[in-house]
Design brief:
7-stranded parallel β-sheet, alpha/beta, globular, 4-stranded mixed β-sheet
Amino acid sequence: MSNTNIKNNCFDNDKYVKLQSAKIDERLQMFNNKLYLEFGGKVFDDLNVARILPGFRPGIKVEILQELRDKVEVIFCINAAAIEKKKMRADHGISYEIELLRLIEKFKAIAIPTVAVVITLYTGQPAAEKFKNQLERRGLKTYIHTPTKGYPTDIDTIVSHEGYGAQPFVETTKPLIVVAAPGANSGKLATCLSQLYHEHKRGVRAGYAKFETLPVWNLPLKHPVNMEYEASTADIGDINMIDNFYFEKSGQVAINYNRDLVIFPVLKKILHKITGQDVYHSPTEMSINMIGECITNDECVRRASCDEIIRRYLDSLCDYRNGIYDISIPNQIKVLMDELDISLADRPVVAAALKKKSDKKTNAVAIELRDGQIITGRYTDVMTAPAAAVINAIKNLSNIDDEIHLIPPINGQPMLKLKQEIYDEAKLYLSDVLMALAVSAATNPTVELALSKLSELKGLEAHSTIMLPKIEIDALKKLGLHITCTDEFAG
């Protein structure tokens, strides 16, 4: 079931940009040219969706916004508790604060302005106050939102001067206000509703909508794309369900997730209290999601999604071993795998890496090439298994004889000696080896040829027989490899 043999033609990006931007503009007109659009998922680099929809451009949400550039401003939200706890983005390995600053700079680079940052659910956290000062000294308008009084049951208090009215209003000038965040549970919805309250008090008939990516509302409940969403959110307990509100209104089946369905009756009452009308009759109606219309090869995305579920299962086992998750998380993902009748046997690099370990009595890494051939590398006296596997892979892709050393011992040994003396590290990591190759390439055409093949590793499957340190994981991911690990500690 390996994803490496799937052609990258499973998704029509141009159609998606056209349909999604048109739908957003249509919703904008529905609300008299003032819309607060809650952005779900990642903004610039949605690598998860790119893995389950091969061909999907990770930055396509930005392409959609660029179609509407003249109408767009951005408000960013960040949870004060996330700042206090130094919550990290697992995909980038950086804190929510750093991710927020990174996103602001990326929007600035494409001439879409950030009008303000809202620090939500503030209850006096010192780290949040410090971050507010940091943002303001960068010239960013920053607002503090405290927990909304009365939420979620006392609608009259929520929609009053004591509830949303007690939160400061963010002044905006453009018709389309994108409300985004560096991660989940950042308070985007509450910020949108607070803004709506203030806008309507000022006589502006603004509206709210949600830009969703997953789950896909018009794919079946048990479609692997939607089941992968459950696997990716197992740690926060998202479960896909049929939108009963949508079914009652239209008689048609649509898919949404439990949190949106549970909160919808409250949200519907809040919106009615603010606007004086029933704006939406279901969570599905609130969302703008045209992804399902742009899948061009269903079998392709089914296989890719199953691959990603297996990868997430392996990742969750490692997180459990590292004390990050309870065992219930990998168990939940295993249930999804059983429903889809998939297993670790559907990931050939796992068996190949374990066989290499058994044969050589040392830990190993395996990489599956696009033609199905599996290349392995093991730990040696000089370098780590990830470094060895990558070198062996690019040698194979370059038709370089296995006996040829891309890094001669005369170069490798001094590097290793220096690492041992300064860092007390006994082997060259993949990042060390890549730097050594880059230096050698200037005078060695063979090494230059091998390095030119690094780009062909992007999207390939890889597996390690032990849990790798962050420096190795980061290097492998930078090369675009889909790396997983057996949940075993080194040593």
